[in-house]
Amino acid sequence: MALMLVKFDLKKRVKLAQTVWFMYWFAVMAGVLVFSMGLFFKIELRKRSELMDNNESHFLPNLLIFMGLVACGINAFGGKVCYDSLDPSKFVKWKPMLKGFLFCCMGFNALLLLTALLCFIMRIPLQFTLAEGLKSGMRYYKDTDTPGRCYMKRTLDLMQIEFRCCGNENYRDWFEIQWVSNRYLDFSAKEVKDRIGSNVDGQYLMDGVPFSCCNPSSPRPCIQHQMTNNSAYYSYDHYTEELNVWKRGCRYAMLSYYGGMMNTIGVLVVLVTMLEVAVTIGLQYIDSSLSTLVNPEDPESESEGWILEKTVKETFTDIMDKMKSMGKGTKVEEGGQAAVATVS
Amino acid sequence: MAFMPVKFNLQKRVKLAQGLWMIYWLSVIVGILLFGLGIFFKIELRKRSEMMDNNESHLVPNLLILVGSLACGLNAFGGKVCHDSLDPIKFAKWKPMLKPFLLLCCGFNALLLLTALLCFLMQFAVYLTLAEGLKNSIKFYKDTDTPGRCFMKRTLDMTQIEFRCCGNNNFRDWFEVQWISNRYLDMSNDLVKDRVLSNVEGKYLMDSVPFSCCNPGSPRPCIQHHLTNNSAHYDYDHRIEELNIWTRGCREALFYYFSSIMNSIGVLIIGTIILESVDMAGLKYLTTALDTMEDPENPECESDGWLLEKGVKETMGELFAKMKTLGKTNQVVEGEDAPEG
């Protein structure tokens, strides 16, 4: 009893072949889409790799690029087979490869599903990489004269402006580090000496944030220095002031950006997997319907198509038996050799 | 003596029809591109209309949208005619329409030329509108509580950040305007009172700029206040400090942006004019080749194709003569009326 048996006549076979050919070309475009999404994700990671300590994992985008290329190849081949399936002479040369090709397709589909799962899971390591990287980024903000780190200020400023965020968790992170380079501090001034002397590490700490934290929507000009001192400004209360600087921390902003990207890519890969499964089933039907022609010489004869030749249980037991017999085969060989050895 | 005659046999006619059909479909795509560019330009003008006092001219993008749709329609029709030209039965129904269609294409080319000219000339209008608009924007920067102007601060800040510019001509424009609202000034403070009294109009002026003028590429944290006072900051000389704030004015930055869009569109339109002229020439050759077949029943016979039936001078002479006879007919009619009346 075959699984999901369907009867085919010539018209139905032709329609099936045409539909599956069409779907294969859609699948090629889907493969191109997956490839370009992997490329886009890789470029986005590269752009901000300074903020991730240059050790972000490129495993996922590389996998997406690889899967996209393989999808294009497999689907183009499948489309060619479908195109030739209507012509018995051309189909004959593809027939022996089909079983192996279908197994390949099933393995590829499983790999696609795994990729989709990874897209949703890899968010977690990204969170840790971002937290570490941003903390170092802020520490190196002032080192605009150190080679290799001189662009950290610019990168961090542009990122805070673009993502509308301030600091790692929130703007108070800037209060805990020295973000003004020593080159621009007058060490003979009393105020500077006081501040440096007031903490263990000898850092010039202040309750101020860089200009890139400023929110343009604020109705008043930006207050970046002496933020916790209400008397320094007219009609200012730092507890109730909402719009002055960005309230969100950059870790959350970047994580939601990359997380959203990865979720979208994951959903798209799941859809592509479903398309691939559909074309694999279609090809299996074509293959089985062309193999069971009642009268091989007459193209107009009826035939049957199925997904599995026997039911799921029977196919499974068949596979287990095959594996057992393969194991037994090696055993018999060994036994035979031993017997021969003893005889001789 | 026909103008640029070419001999055609069946193969050449078929090749001409096929090639022309492809060029017509390319022209349809170019028409769609023009339409899309018109919409893009309109959206960009709308986005920054606050900087231009809300009275910028939308003539160029509207004209582009019109021209793009017309191009699509005309070229699709031309492509259909080419496709049918190889089948005499189908071609017979298009034949009477072809002469007016070619005249329409001529008119369309003239319209394209006008649009290209406008693209290059309207840049002056954009420059003047920007100068006026930015001056007002800077004046209204502080009015974040006035309905209708409360978003001017945000718009101007975002523009200065995005276009990397400061002020109208340069950053000193901010020194001449009060950009802090009175709501945030302590009028009982001596310093504030001194500043307000120090100028005729009673404005709180200072040598500072908003935060959006700051350049992220500067090695030191941004200096926005007391810009001209060297002693207010350690190791600072405002005459040689280059990277602190953006030195370019926003009028120049915005004008450069819009003028590069308009120049690119103008160049594309000139390319479209050339493409349309090629289309017209090809269609003329095709129609004349199909008209002058020696034996209409035999599709394999030879024929001639040309651009103009007589030479250029003779055609112009004929046109003038036609226009004169039109004028003369009116005169004759009047003359007849007079004796009767």
Automatic annotation (TrEMBL), chain A:
GO terms for cellular component: plasma membrane. It is a multi-pass membrane protein. Keywords: Cell adhesion, Disulfide bond, Glycoprotein, Membrane, Transmembrane, Transmembrane helix. It is found in: Membrane. InterPro entries: Peripherin/rom-1 (IPR000830), Peripherin/rom-1_CS (IPR018498), Peripherin_LEL (IPR042026), Tetraspanin/Peripherin (IPR018499), Tetraspanin_EC2_sf (IPR008952). It comes from the Eukaryota. GO terms for biological process: cell adhesion; visual perception. The chain crosses the membrane at residues 20-41, 62-80, 100-121, 264-286. PANTHER family: PERIPHERIN-2 (PTHR19282:SF202), TETRASPANIN (PTHR19282). Belongs to the PRPH2/ROM1 family. This is Peripherin-2.
From TrEMBL, chain B:
It is a multi-pass membrane protein. It is found in: Membrane. One of its GO terms (cellular component) is plasma membrane. GO terms for biological process: cell adhesion; visual perception. Gene3D superfamilies: Tetraspanin (1.10.1450.10). Pfam families: Tetraspanin. InterPro entries: Peripherin/rom-1 (IPR000830), Peripherin/rom-1_CS (IPR018498), Peripherin_LEL (IPR042026), Tetraspanin/Peripherin (IPR018499), Tetraspanin_EC2_sf (IPR008952). The chain crosses the membrane at residues 20-41, 62-81, 101-130, 254-275. Keywords: Cell adhesion, Disulfide bond, Glycoprotein, Membrane, Transmembrane, Transmembrane helix. The keyword Magnesium does not apply. The keyword ATP-binding does not apply. Belongs to the PRPH2/ROM1 family. This is Peripherin-2. It comes from Zoarces viviparus.
